[in-house]
Amino acid sequence: MSPPRFVHRKISGEDFDAELKRQGLTRKSFARIFCQNLVTVNRWGRENKGQIQDIPSWVPIAMTLLTLPNALGTARMAAAAMIQADRLHPELGEFPYQKLRQMPADADVED
Length: 111
Known about the structure:
The protein is mostly helical. The chain has 5 helices and 2 strands.
């Protein structure tokens, strides 16, 4: 098997955090918008068991796209439509935010 064609530049955890701050996002909100596990996102660019977990190459691309006009709102709406169930509010039923197309408020507790 041959190696991948491209070698991509990596961004640091500090760069990631700085860009999140510049855009008014937290790691939690980024994880929610891009349907990522918060534990995983919190490991990106940080030392874990003696190793730094690389930030995926799609992340800086996504961060760049979020700077386009109305992109953040559009991304939030698309992510909301993908939520099949809200475990904190099971009474809302299946795809609770698809009609609202609005992200639910970030809870203090994440699994």
